[in-house]
Design a protein that fits this description.
This protein is α+β, with helices and mostly antiparallel strands. The chain has three domains: 207 residues, P-loop containing nucleotide triphosphate hydrolases (Rossmann fold, 3-Layer(aba) Sandwich); 87 residues, Translation factors (Elongation Factor Tu (Ef-tu), domain 3), CATH 2.40.30.10; 102 residues, Translation factors (Elongation Factor Tu (Ef-tu), domain 3). It has seven helices and 22 strands. The strands form four sheets. The chain has a six-stranded mixed beta sheet, sandwiched between helices. It is globular, with a radius of gyration of 24 Å. The two termini are 31 Å apart.
Length: 413
């Protein structure tokens, strides 16, 4: 399915919500009732034109403050693609929300106010894009109408962004730059008559044509449920239901259970009532094996040549989500897929300074929205890939054992 997942980032008043509203409006993704409602609210505010930011800033608190404070997921379609846009808050107090919004994105869209250029918040957004290993980054230079559609100003900002490529390890990413005015629609869905000097694609054309990278990672299958009907029709049936986390598997492949030395071959693949010859990343299927082996919920399967050893000690970067600070002596539950492992924090090595964007040693505490480098230890092996190699099987969440609240999201290094 051709679905493009986009994460947006921008500072307050960069026009992010207006840009998304413009995309929805120009792609005719809004109902007549919605448009009339937005027109009515805009008139009540004394505006001469529709305030397109109202389309995405749906929370009452957001409308009162005029800023986006939570992750809103917006869906729209064109004849070529389906889109899911995670409209994330841009300010540092909501770092956790931004990481959540960027977790599954194929494209990271960073807005920059043409008047202000690159600010500290822009650098933070670039750091998040680097941390989340997002390959496609588009810089949307907004409010070009307020700088007289200046080509010189656009080139100045583009030059400054190029300098940051090395600093944030972005030299292997696909970087694009589009000058727009979201308010009036220049270069969003249609070419701007005011910027004839710009020969690149509109933002929508970019999104329509950007390549979604194929999943070429190793096969990982997370077992969520063991199916044993024990009925007359399926007397000896044993299947393993779950999701193909990454890679693919086909009938006849030899698989390995990572938590043991057991191996078998794929006898059949079932999706609902339909048999499949092959299952790909993202497919929820039931695997039937040729051999009756011991597999339970939480086990991770791989192809036999790709089997790797679990670790009882891992290094990771973690964004702390909990309202209470991390307690090093406390036991937490590390969960990836349906696998759960009890862990303790062996060491907090360093923490990101949001001003210098460098990891500084020995932080005083690990509190909400902080990003830290930590070592974790467990009693049983953890079967995670390095996040930079396999994003789908390289992240985890930490759960407070007592409250059962999710308190952190981490990325194995």
């Amino acid at each position: 399915m051709n679905i493009l997942r986009i994460s947006t980032a921008g500072s307050v008043d960069d026009g992010k919500s207006t840009l998304i509203g413009r995309l929805l409006y120009d792609t005719q993704s809004l109902s007549k009732d919605k448009i009339e409602n937005i027109k009515s609210i805009s008139e009540q505010r004394g505006l001469n034109e529709m305030d397109l930011s109202l389309i995405t800033d749906g929370l009452t608190a957001e409308r009162e403050q005029g800023i986006t404070i939570d992750v809103a997921h917006i869906y729209f379609n064109t004849p070529n693609r389906k889109y899911i846009v995670a409209d994330s808050p841009g300010h540092v107090e909501y770092t956790r929300n931004m990481i959540t919004g960027a977790s599954n994105a194929s494209v990271f869209m960073i807005l920059i106010d043409a008047r202000n250029g690159i600010i500290e918040q822009t650098k933070r957004h670039l750091f998040i894009a680097s941390l989340m290993e997002i390959k496609n980054i588009v810089f949307v230079i907004n409010k070009m109408d307020l700088v007289d559609y200046s080509e010189e100003r656009f080139n100045e900002i583009k030059k400054e962004l190029k300098v940051l490529e090395t600093k944030f390890n972005l030299t292997n990413r696909d970087l694009s730059f589009v000058p727009v005015s979201a308010k009036v629609g220049d270069n969003v869905a249609s070419k701007s008559q005011e910027m004839s000097w710009y020969t690149g694609s509109t933002l929508l054309d970019y999104l329509e044509n950007v390549k979604i990278l194929e999943d070429d990672n190793a096969f990982r299958f997370n077992v969520q449920y063991v199916i044993r009907p024990q009925s007359d029709d399926f007397h000896d049936f044993r299947g393993y239901a779950g999701k193909v986390v990454s890679g693919s598997v086909k009938v006849g492949d030899e698989i390995a259970v990572l938590s043991s030395d057991q191996t078998s071959k794929i006898k059949a693949i079932h999706k609902y009532e339909n048999p499949l010859l092959k299952a790909n990343s993202g497919d929820s299927v039931t695997l039937e094996l040729e051999d009756d082996i011991d597999i339970s919920r939480g086990d991770l399967l791989s192809l036999q040549p790709e089997k790797f050893t679990g670790l009882k000690s891992i290094k990771s970067k973690i964004c702390w989500l909990g309202k209470e600070d991390l307690v090093p002596a406390k036991k937490y539950i590390l969960q990836y897929g349906s696998s759960k492992v009890a862990v303790k924090v062996a060491a907090v090595k360093s923490q990101l300074d949001f001003d210098s964007l460098a990891f500084e040693a020995l932080p005083e505490n690990v509190s909400v929205n902080s990003i830290s480098e930590i070592d974790l230890k467990s009693a049983s092996p953890i079967y995670l890939d390095d996040y930079a190699i396999n994003k789908k099987n390289g992240y985890f969440v930490l759960i407070d054992e007592q409250s059962n609240a999710t308190v952190g999201v981490g990325f194995k290094e």
